[in-house]
Write a structure and sequence with these properties.
Helix content: 40-55%
Distance between the termini: 31 Å
Oligomer: single chain
Shape: globular
Structural class: alpha+beta
Radius of gyration: 25 Å
Number of strands: 11
């Protein structure tokens, strides 16, 4: 039983948002985000000290019901409240009341970092803040390409909106590097003086968030707007990355939504596969669940949901271990993000495809899941960029991630081999950078995913996940690079096929056990999971008919 198990059955979440206009959906998502946050009871202590309650936000199945609401929740609690809480608890106690208002959703918070023309090159942002002789600041966007990209800063629901805005600080004509500033954006109805936004079209395929381009025209800020101090630093880049510590937290926290996405997606698919029937060669109705084409992707997704849950538990423990080098903790977060997104996106696509035409519709959730997770893969650290940094650091022996607790397993052997091969490539070259860019960089994400596979498997074994689920997980990981295992004589292609078949045969009889253990049925909104749900859903659809015609009873 989760804190949101009753909330998901409320009118607020039972309302079918796909039948609403964009504006109505946006308002509904804000209402749902607030309801989620209040139901979870997140406090300043939770967001500041990263308690278990904070980490549990992102693995709560309520997050799959509305992707836009999930986005707003993680911005509000992690990026904004989390950033401000650090200052409120130390040098800026005057911010305590604002943080409490954000936690109660009396104020909406946004996080303005990325610029339209710079993308990942955020350290070289162009948005500027100039110290004035009065002690105030002048916040300015020099050109259209310097507008802050993505944050939904449009006024909504009459609630005031503030943002943590990052900009280059100039003092007496000297640039002192990017600093965070607290900026009022709107009062819930109108934009503040000098603040302009351009509402972007919907992303497509996902729940609409009012993504926008936000720019500033010589906005006057009080001295208290600066989060931190004016002191010139000799470690500007390191200080900047330290100010972004909640982005690193989000890399692990936000990617963990892959777990409930896998759980709900596999539940929807399982119930549809059991209901949908075709005629067998003998002329009898046969559930499509009878076919291996449905069984394989379904059971793989279920096994990944259980294994990733174990990985998440282990990764949070490591991330919270202050005795570990902060770069190691961030590296673990990067590995988790890579493997969680890999599993979720493959499952979202394949299971949606196995639903046939039903898989195309937003009301059945899975096609929407794919688009929502695409956003997650970019937010709080693009997976490819994180992978390139992690592999480069590993090859240059800057630091080491935790070693395998099962080093003789095939996934550990695969990981070591990929990194040994990459190390040999760069060490045998007279130009490390050129060799890395040419031969290693294109393989960085695969290498980090291999680390993630190994970490997930180790965590699942060490936490006692069922052996038949472990067997399914490991064979799926092997199949992502089957050529390596064949090339090195670990398995033949035929052996891999038979291993997968044996693992599936052991797990399939326990399908209902796995579905029940995930505890997500009440969070499912897809109408194709039962006759009753479909009939209820069909009554919400517009009907076009002649006056004399009778509307037939809806059947799937």
């Amino acid at each position: 039983m989760t804190p949101t198990s009753q909330l998901c059955q409320s009118d607020l979440f039972e309302k079918r948002s796909e039948l609403l206009s964009r504006n109505a959906r946006v308002v509904l998502s804000y209402e749902r985000a607030k309801a989620i946050g209040l139901a979870l009871g997140i406090t300043l202590n939770d967001t500041l000290n990263l308690t278990q309650k904070f980490w549990d936000i992102h693995t709560d199945p309520i997050m799959v019901r509305d992707g836009a609401a999930a986005t707003l929740v993680t911005i509000q609690y992690n990026l904004v409240a989390g950033t401000l809480a650090k200052y409120a608890a130390t040098t800026r106690p005057d911010l305590l009341s604002l943080v409490e208002n954000i936690l109660r959703w009396d104020v909406i918070g946004q996080f303005c970092l990325t610029e339209l023309g710079r993308g990942l090159d955020i350290f070289r942002m162009k948005t500027s803040v100039t110290l004035l002789p009065t002690g105030e600041f002048d916040l300015h966007t020099p050109s259209p390409s310097d507008a802050k990209f993505m944050p939904p800063t449009i006024p909504v629901k009459g609630l005031p909106c503030v943002a943590v805005v990052f900009a280059q600080l100039y003092v007496d004509g000297e640039c002192r590097g990017p600093r965070p500033f607290l900026v009022n954006l709107n009062d819930g109805y109108d934009m503040c003086k000098g603040v302009t936004l351009m509402l972007l079209p919907p992303r497509g395929g996902s729940s609409p968030v009012n993504h926008a381009l936000t720019s500033f025209h010589h906005v006057r800020l009080p001295p208290s707007a600066l989060l931190g101090d004016l002191t010139k630093s000799n470690t500007i880049h390191r200080d900047f990355m330290s100010s972004l510590w909640r982005v690193a937290v989000g890399s692990l926290a936000l990617s963990s939504v892959a777990i409930p996405f896998l759980q709900v997606g596999s539940f929807v698919a399982a119930r549809y596969f059991q209901r949908r029937r075709v005629t067998s060669l003998q002329g009898n109705p046969l559930p499509i669940m009878s076919y291996r084409t449905q069984q394989f992707p379904l059971l793989h997704a279920i096994s990944q949901a259980f294994v990733l849950r174990a990985l998440h538990k282990w990764a949070v423990e490591q991330f919270m271990d202050t005795n570990l080098d902060v770069r190691v903790r961030h590296g673990i977060g990067a590995c988790c993000k890579a493997v969680m997104l890999q599993h979720a996106q493959v499952a979202n696509y394949v299971l949606s495809e196995r639903l046939g035409a039903q898989g195309l519709f937003e009301y059945n959730q899975l096609s929407n899941f794919y688009s929502e997770m695409r956003g997650v893969s970019i937010a709080e650290g693009d997976i490819l960029a994180l992978s390139m940094r992690l592999v480069a650091d590993t090859l240059s022996q800057t630091y080491e991630l935790p070693f395998s607790t099962h080093p003789d397993g095939p996934l550990a052997m695969h990981e070591i081999s990929l990194f040994d091969e990459a190390a040999e490539t760069v060490s045998s070259s007279s130009d490390f950078t050129q060799a890395f860019m040419q031969y290693v960089q294109p393989r960085c994400q695969q290498m980090v995913e291999s680390m993630g596979h190994r970490m997930a498997y180790d965590a699942a074994v060490d936490q006692g996940v069922s052996q038949c689920l472990l067997d399914l997980y490991i064979i799926n990981a092997i199949k992502t690079d089957a050529a390596w295992y064949v090339e090195h004589g670990v398995f033949t292609r035929k052996a891999i096929v038979h291993m997968e078949d044996a693992a599936l045969s052991a797990a399939l009889p326990r399908l209902e056990e796995w579905l029940t253990a995930m505890e997500v049925e009440q969070y499912v909104s897809s109408p194709i999971t039962s006759d009753k749900r479909w009939e209820e859903f069909s009554r919400t659809l517009p009907v076009y008919s002649s006056p004399q015609a009778e509307v037939p009873a809806a059947r799937l």
